[in-house]
Amino acid sequence: MESIVSQLSYFPVKREDKEKFVSLLVDEILSGDRNPIKAEIYLQSMLSIIKSVRVKVKDYVMSEAGKYAKKSFAFDGLNLTVAAKVTYDYESCNDSVYNDLKKKIEEREAFLKNLNQEVVNPDTGEVILRPVKKVTDYLKITD
Predict the structure, then answer these.
(1) H or E stretch including 32?
(2) Distance between terminal CA atoms of the chain?
(3) pTM, entire model
(4) Which of 54, 77, 99, 105 counts the most CB atoms within 10 A of its CB?
C-alpha cells in the first residue's frame, strides 16, 4: 500500500513544472472538462490539510534542515535556505502612545467607513472622500 507522504510526490516541486500543472488544471476547469465547484472543494481541502500538517511538523522539518552543514543546501534538485522572519508584538510594549494612536486609527477608520458623502476638513480644507469598498466573493465550504 502506498504511503500518504509518497502520494505528495505526484505534485510538482520545480517552478516550471508547477506552472505547467497550474496551467493544465486551469485549462481543464475553464474548458468545462471539469466541474469548477468540485475543483474548488478539492483545492480548499488541500489548503486546509497543508496548513495543518505544516504547523504540526515545522519543528521536525527545521531540526532535519539543521543537520546540514550550511544554511543553504541542495536537496532533491532544489536549493533550500534556512531563513528567519522577524515580527514584533507591539501590544506587549505597554506603550500608551502606541495604544492611543492605534485606537485613534480604528476610530478614524470607523468614521471614514460611515461617510455618506465627501466631507471638507475645516482645518485643512482638504476634501475627504469615502473609502473605496472592495468586496471579494468566495465559496464557503462546510462539512
Answers:
(1) none
(2) 28
(3) 0.74
(4) 99
